[in-house]
Sequence to fold (453 residues):
Amino acid sequence: MGAKKLEKKLFGTNGVRAVVGKDLTPQLVMKIGLALGTMRKGRIAVGMDSRTSGPALIAAVKAGLMAVGCDVVDCGMLPTPALQYIVKGNFDGGAMITASHNPPEYNGIKIIEPDGTEMGDEETIELESLIFLDSVSLAKWDEVGSESIEKERVHEYVAGVLKHFPQGIGTGIKVVIDPGCGAAVSTTPEILSAMGTQIFTINSHADGHFPGRLPEPSEAGLKPLSTLVIATGASFGVAHDGDADRAVFIDEKGAFIEENKSFALIVRYLCNAQKGVIVTPVSTSNLIERVAKELGSTVVYTPVGSIYVARTMINLENEGQIVVMGGEGNGGLIYREHQLCRDGGMSAAVMVALLAKEKKPLSELISRLPPSFMLKEKITTNNGTAILEKLRDIYKNYPIDDTDGIRITVRNGWALIRLSGTEPLVRVMVEFETKEEASTLYNEIIGNIKALI
Ligand code: MG
Fold:
C-alpha cells in the first residue's frame, strides 16, 4: 500500500545533509540550485534555519536558481514547515537550507514541490542526474532571474496554523517553549501567544552555535526545559528540532514524553472527531494502531521517511479514503487539514487544543494510554544487507513484512531490523507491552546480529 523506496546517490530520506566545508560546499549547493531551477522553471521560494553556514549556502542556492532564469523569493530564517506552507500553491518550488536535528557542524538542503510536499524519490533521481551531468543551460544576460527578500511571509504560516483553532482556546494554559535556538524562535511563541496561552521561553534566540542544547530535542538536552516547566507551573513544555518540523513534549511534572506516546494521544484526540486512516512508517509504535482501532480507525504503514508518509496520504485520498493524519514516531506529525508535511508548530498548537478539551493533566492522559515498552539500538556494520537476509531466514516461521527492512510479528509484539539510509548501520527496534518480553526478543536479535558481523 505504501510508497516504495528508490535508491538515490546524493539525497537521503530528508534531503542532502553533510558537514559544512567538507562534504557540503557552496559549490554543491549552487549546483543543486542550477538543477532545481532547470527542473522547476519559474518562481522559487528559499529559506534557512539558524545555522552559522545558512547565509553562505542560501546565497549559493539563489545564485544557481537565478543563473538558470528563476525568480527567487528569499523568506529568510523560518521553520521548514513554514516554507512548505508558503510554497504550497504559490510557487513553482522551494529550497530550504537546513540540517534539521543534526549537530551544528552540519547543514543541508530540502527540496519542496509546488504542492508544499518534499520532493519524492523519482523526481529527486531526475534532479540528481541534472546535478551529476553538470550540463544545465544558463540564462542569457537579459533572462537571468530576479531576487526579492520577503521575510514577513512567515506570518502567512503563523496565520495558517491559527485558523484551525477557535480564538482564545489556550486561555488559562501555561506553556514553556524551547525552540533550541533554531528556526522556531520566531513562530511557535507567536502561535501559542495568539491562541491565548501564557508562554515562557528558553533557548529562544536564533544562534547557530546552539549554546543551550543540540538541535536534536533529546531527553538529556531538555532537562532545563523540564526544570522550567516545574518552576512555572506550566501545563506542558514543548521543544523543537533545528528546523521545527518536529515537536516533543514535557508533561506538567517535568517528565519527558516518548514521542510515540504524544503521537498516540493526538491520534486519540483527532480520531474522536473523525474516523479514517492514520499513515505512519513501520518503525512507529503499535500504540498508534491500538488507539486508532479503539475508535474505529485504521493504520496504513509506509517505509521510514516523511515523504513516504505524505505520498501515501495523497494516494489514499485519491482512492477516496478519509485520511485523518500522518506522522512518524519521532514527533514529526502531519495534520491533513493544515498541510501534507510534518509541522512542529502545528503540533504544539494541537496539544494546547487537546488539553483545553480534555481538562486533565497531560501526565494523566499519557498514563491512560495502553502499555508499551520499546527498545532501540543501532549497530555499525558494512555487512547490513547480508545480515538482513540471514535474519529473514532465522525468523522465517514468523510473519515478516518487508516494507522497509524486515518487520517480524510475534505474539504480543514485533521487531524491526532495517538498514540506515545514510550511514553503515543496522537499526533494531523491538516493542512489547512489557519490558521483560521486549528484552527477551531484543537480546536474541542483537546476539544474532553480532554473531553475523
Ligand atoms: Mg527537522
